[in-house]
Amino acid sequence: MSLHTRIRQKLEEKKLRAADLARATKKSPVAAKKWLDGTSVPTAENLKVIAKFLGVSDDWLLYGGSDEQESSNNLAQLNVIDIEAFKQKYNIPDSEDAVKFVQAPAKPFPIQKRYVPVKAYSKMGMDGYFTDMGYDGNAGDGYVPTHTAGPRAYGIKGTGDSMFPAIRNGWYVVCDPDADLVPNEFVQ
């Protein structure tokens, strides 16, 4: 059954006419007649008004299926029943202590940032080998701000495009030898 057939069916059940539909949607009777003939489709905004006017859900008007708005009211109850069945199946008690979201204590994010010194320039060649740029560090290249680096952290200015787009030419990289290793992260 199509959209216009469902609209026509509900109008007949409620003993309403196309003029009543036009009045409810504040559209012309010609537009309402086109909706009922199937030569035009109502906009989403008009569809919501039509559904409310006919006492059905938007989904029923568009796709058919279970009748009336009762189906949308039953969905919430079905979800509750499914959750209760899930709890019984997996023996989950109703207490708040039943679920622990975090097993390990989360480290608080430091609010205050600190600065780490830029110790070197680096250049990775096309063959993958590190080239020392002859920079001893602490010669006035400054400091880089960071929130999470440890006390032994340092900065390196990257040159070249071998790591593009992850690390671009001229970007600073903060290296922290005390940091925990994370899969898929760069290691310096």
From TrEMBL:
<dbReference type="InterPro" id="IPR039418">
    <property type="entry name" value="LexA-like"/>
</dbReference>
<dbReference type="InterPro" id="IPR010982">
    <property type="entry name" value="Lambda_DNA-bd_dom_sf"/>
</dbReference>
<dbReference type="InterPro" id="IPR001387">
    <property type="entry name" value="Cro/C1-type_HTH"/>
</dbReference>
<keyword id="KW-0238">DNA-binding</keyword>
<keyword id="KW-0804">Transcription</keyword>
<dbReference type="Pfam" id="PF01381">
    <property type="entry name" value="HTH_3"/>
</dbReference>
<protein>
    <submittedName>
        <fullName>Repressor</fullName>
    </submittedName>
</protein>
<feature type="domain" description="HTH cro/C1-type">
    <location>
        <begin position="7"/>
        <end position="61"/>
    </location>
</feature>
<dbReference type="GO" id="GO:0003677">
    <property type="term" value="F:DNA binding"/>
</dbReference>
<dbReference type="InterPro" id="IPR036286">
    <property type="entry name" value="LexA/Signal_pep-like_sf"/>
</dbReference>
<keyword id="KW-0805">Transcription regulation</keyword>
